[in-house]
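Changelog note: in this version the structure field was regenerated for every chain. One regenerated record is shown below for reference.
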Amino acid sequence: MAPTESSRTPVVLVVEDEYDVRATYDLWLDDEWEVRTAADGKTALSILDPAVDVVVLDRMMPGLSGRDVLDAMQDRQADPRVVMMTAVTPDLDIVEMPFDAYLSKPVDHDQLNETVRTLLDRDKQDDQLREYYRLVEKRATLESENPDHVLSEDERYQQLTDRIAELEDVLSDDLNDLDSDEFVALLDDVV
């Protein structure tokens, strides 16, 4: 039996040209995630597939830079969250770069794990928001086309409204925990 989307182990790809840094990130990343590593952008692109949830990407690498890897990722079916890591002070050029988090080196164990965890949580929230909007649309369609007494007697409609209520509770709790930047990022992902 194949794992469901929610039960599979999240995959984190670390792309870092310095061996010691790459090995440290590999050791630091939470044991609940599958960690893949690549020493350069070309290797990263060769092992990037739809199973990768988060890419921890060094910005300054020989050969393909982090920016080059980001650009190449746009042409693939994989759509992971990206943590851009760099020892360089960010310039205004980052405005056009499609990453989800930007960390300045050196980072510590907690900072790296918390950033990856936040991005994985955001993916989960995206999925829940999308499901919520799909179900609300279905409910609105059913309510506009069917009399109340027909809907109230149908088990499928009741299951639909129950699931909407569950999602509203979960999303309400999750959204209350977000700071304003995370909330804006979440909405940008969904719309």
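Spot check on this record: The longest helix spans residues 109-145. The helical segments are 19-28, 41-47, 66-73, 109-145, 148-152, 155-177, 180-190.
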